[in-house]
Specification:
Elements lengths: L1 H5 L13 H12 L10 E6 L2 H7 L14 E8 L9 H18 L3 E2 L2 E2 L4 H11 L5 E10 L22
Antiparallel strand pairs: 1-2, 2-5, 3-5, 4-5
Length: 166
């Protein structure tokens, strides 16, 4: 999968909208993610409103790039109806990674802005998107056409690989 090795965090975007069909492909990739006992705890909010993007850019100290993105996903996790609630955040992270890889494959760029588990950041995102109390904000994913591309580095470190052989 070339997207795994070419993906990098993108924080600067061109000023053009992302086509709805590409947004749907990204959402399909997210919902194709495996989840514990197939609980699928996710809900996705697609934000293109400039005032909401500006508000989201103030949700964490690392979210400033959101205000200049043409769009952002806010991923939220359900609290209720979960079969394996202890795995909810892992499920959310897998869905986020699927989105990042599909974004790369479509020629777009994104960066993951962590929101959970910091209550004050979660409260700011909840207010910005008007999330119901049954959902917990997980992450913000600003995305769009990259203004520039970074060359990803090779992070493989054989010292971190430990073989256990029979």
């Amino acid at each position: 999968m070339e997207a795994i090795f070419t993906r990098s965090s993108v924080r600067k975007f061109e000023e053009c909208p992302v086509e709805p069909e590409k947004i749907e492909k990204i959402l399909r990739a997210a919902m194709a993610a495996p989840s514990a006992k197939n609980q699928q705890p996710w809900e996705f909010f697609v934000v293109t409103a400039k005032n909401t993007l500006l508000t989201l850019s103030q949700a964490t100290p690392y979210a400033m790039c959101v205000k200049n993105a043409p769009a952002a996903f806010v991923l939220a996790a359900r609290r209720e109806g979960l079969i394996a609630p202890e795995f909810r955040d892992i499920d959310m992270a897998i869905a986020t990674e699927n989105m990042m890889l599909e974004i790369e494959a479509l020629g777009l760029g994104a960066v993951m802005i962590g929101v959970a588990p910091i209550p004050e950041n979660m409260d700011k995102v909840r207010a910005a998107v008007v999330l119901p109390e049954t959902l917990d904000p997980f992450t913000i994913l600003p995305f769009g056409y990259p203004a520039k591309r970074r060359i990803p580095e090779d992070r493989y470190d054989p010292a971190r690989v430990h073989w256990i052989k029979a």
